[in-house]
Design a protein that fits this description.
Elements lengths: L9 H25 L26 E9 L2 E9 L4 E6 L4 H6 L3 H15 L11 H18 L3
Antiparallel strand pairs: 1-2, 2-3
Helix pairs in contact: 3-4
Length: 150
């Protein structure tokens, strides 16, 4: 076998370098978008859990609070035992609400998880969705106010 000589034109080298650069940028963007970060991209730092008092905190049952979204009610229900919040749920959204407020359900899930974990409604407002978080939080507080044992 003899020596082989390759002739490369400068435009082919520049084109190859450009495609490699574009490929690296696309790969970097995909990694940035799909690799989970701590805190799911928010500055959310939940408060420390509260100590459990000896007396009953709540009257056991399920309590409901309504939110008006797109001129239609949406119910947030909170189920409690004497000393524990056991469920925070949202009624089925109307299709028009789901279309106009697409992030409402995921934020509701995050707020519900925090309320159940920390056993209180005064959680930290998410910096990335402050208005939605505050609306849901107020509805949970309103439901829990009905459940408080006096």
């Amino acid at each position: 076998m003899g020596t082989k000589i390759f002739v490369l034109q400068i435009r082919d080298v520049i084109r190859l370098a450009g495609f490699l650069l574009i490929g690296l940028v696309v790969l970097g963007v995909l990694v940035f978008l799909f690799i989970p970060r701590d805190g799911s991209g928010s500055n959310h730092q939940p408060p420390p859990p509260a100590a459990q008092p000896a007396a009953a905190l709540y009257i056991p049952g399920t309590y409901v609070s309504s939110i008006i979204l797109n001129d239609r009610p949406l119910e947030i229900s909170v189920t409690v035992t004497e000393n524990e919040i056991v469920a925070v749920e949202m009624a089925e959204m109307y299709e028009s609400q789901r279309l106009l407020y697409p992030l409402f359900e995921p934020i509701m899930a995050r707020v519900s998880d925090d309320v159940l974990f920390y056993q209180r409604a005064d959680i930290t407002i998410y910096n990335d969705f402050p208005v939605t978080t505050e609306i849901i939080q107020k509805a949970v507080v309103a439901a829990l106010d009905q459940a408080i044992a006096h």
